[in-house]
Amino acid sequence: MKHTAIIQNLLVFLNHSPSAWQAVSLSCNHLVELGFEILSEKEKWAIQPGRGYIVTRNGSSLCAFITPKKIPRSMRLIGSHTDSPSLKLKPIPEIRKQGALLLGVEVYGSPLLHSWLNRDLGIAGRVFITDRNDVLHEHIVCLDQYPVIIPQLAIHLDREVNEKGLQLNKQEHLYALAAIDSSLENDSFLETILREKIHFKNLVSHDLFLFPLENARLLGYDHSLIAGYRIDSLASIHAAIYALSQSLEPFDNELKMIICWDHEEIGSHTYQGASSPFFNQIVERIVSSYEGTREDYFCLLNRSLCMSVDLAHAVHPNYPEKHDANHQPLLGQGIVLKHNAQQRYATSAYSSLPVHRISSQKKIPIQHFVSRNDIPCGTTIGPIQSTKTGIPTVDLGCAQLSMHSCREIIACRDHVYLCDFLENFLQNDELFSSSWN
């Protein structure tokens, strides 16, 4: 029953988080229900020992932590990211040509572009508007009542598409069809559908993304698979939130923390990304609240460990040659420990010691992934945050097919393994300490 509840809750989270802002908002609401208090970075903090707190930045990055009873000596950190590859509306998105009203988009990250074609698409994110008194307001929105679509060129006009593959010009071929031009005359499509959700005088600015309207769902025999949008890396966030919610009892002198940054898919070099001082500033303020010194702060970082949780490449049964012969993670066979000699993943023999310890003691299966030497390796927030903080880090996560597609796939069993693993990481004092500090 516990495992069924985890998967059902993941499906709800996937279906209600079309953008980073919805994902952070849902996570915050859940943690507040558990007694966590929201802190503002712009105000002074009055942190108490043994309490849970939440900090957000830009509404799209989230940090939640449980303070220890005494000054923190070390920290257990789980890191992930809130964004996914997608298509973002341009600041002035609407264009009219050939009798159609179209929406112009920018490519965000590295999506599998062909997966966005011929799908019913909604629009989600945040908008800033003014009311009739010219007061500025922010709203998180999900506009799904009037779907748009990016139609593919017919095979009759692209005769070699099946032999030579689809060729898309990112500027010319990704406009989303929103309406027949005459149906709105000179009115703005975006403002018109927004006014059905919120009342406003002027639309000032927006961060809006297209998203597929098809819900996440269970697939396969015995419903052993999950398919959906933004599994990378909403599944990791869900597992981290689950682990923290199951580990509410504070330690004596260990800080429990999860942090989920925005903008991983575009390099993390933003003020709410993993390259920002968001994490370091929070930790320093926590130490300061215990009247700790800079020396205490640096000691804390060097006694800590980070689990960087993101998705990993499952071996594709139609393309097994794309994986190294000895490193072929299978769906449903356990979480994946990711390695790279160039440190595109942060895992080392040393930092992975607690992973092996927890895996052995709790019978949680571990698989290993390393790229072929002739296929460049991806990366995660792991190396970035490890470089910025000096915290030893491990990169791991669930095996996945169709990564960066509109419709990604994982095994239910792997997600449950990940939730169990992270819960043990945050909860079990003996397993962590006996192999680390």
The tally of strands reads 20
In round numbers, the mean pLDDT is 96
Query: How would you characterize the largest beta sheet?
Result: 9 strands, mixed
Identify the CATH architecture of the largest domain: 3-Layer(aba) Sandwich
CATH class of the largest domain: Alpha Beta
Radius of gyration: 23 Å
Strand order of the largest sheet: 1-2-3-13-4-14-18-16-17
Instruction: Indicate the overall shape.
Output: globular
Can you walk me through this structure?
With about 425 residues, this protein is α/β, with parallel strands linked by helices. The protein has two domains: about 1-85 and about 230-435, Aminopeptidase (3-Layer(aba) Sandwich); about 85-210, Aminopeptidase i, Domain 2, CATH 2.30.250. Helix content is about 25%, strand content about 30%. The protein has eleven helices and 20 strands. The chain has helices spanning about 1-15, 20-35, 160-165, 190-195, 230-245, 280-290, 295-300, 355-360, 380-390, 410-425, 430-435; strands spanning about 35-40, 50-55, 60-65, 75-80, 85-95, 100-110, 120-130, 135-150, 175-180, 200-210, 215-220, 225-230, 255-260, 305-310, 310-315, 335-340, 365-370, 395, 400, 410. A hairpin with a 5-residue loop joins β7 (about 120-130) and β8. α1 crosses α5 (about 230-245) and α5 (about 230-245) crosses α10. The mean pLDDT is about 95.
